[in-house]
Design brief:
globular; 4-stranded antiparallel β-sheet; single chain; mainly beta; 7-stranded mixed β-sheet
């Protein structure tokens, strides 16, 4: 059993920054694909960023250049640095490690 716990969400004005973290506990697979997703009210969950087990990184186009995904060397902590936040970034953000999911953390961008 693997548990993912997210933290770092909050409310910021447009242009602000937040850093999300996702910490895994339990027995993970030897290879871990780590991702961030988000779900805005009334919308489907969408992909935000990914770091593969080998370190390949990809982003959803609307966040590229503003968000940075990273992980620690033990591959148990995933982060998402979010800069230049926009109101359309408002959503619940979820992390995933392979098929395991976190509970979500709310990010609100509003003046």
């Amino acid at each position: 059993q693997v548990q993912l716990v997210e933290s770092g969400g909050g409310s910021v004005p447009p242009g602000g920054s937040l850093r999300l973290s996702c910490v895994a506990s339990g027995r993970l697979e030897s290879r871990v694909d780590m991702r961030w997703y988000r779900q805005a009210p009334g919308k489907q969950r969408e992909f935000v960023a990914r770091i593969s087990d080998s370190g390949f990184i990809s982003y959803e186009p609307s966040v590229k250049g503003r968000f940075t995904i990273s992980r620690d060397n033990t591959k148990t902590t995933l982060s998402l640095q979010m800069n230049s936040l926009k109101p359309e970034d408002t959503a619940v953000y979820y992390c995933s490690f392979n098929t395991w999911w976190g509970q979500g953390t709310q990010v609100t961008v509003s003046s």
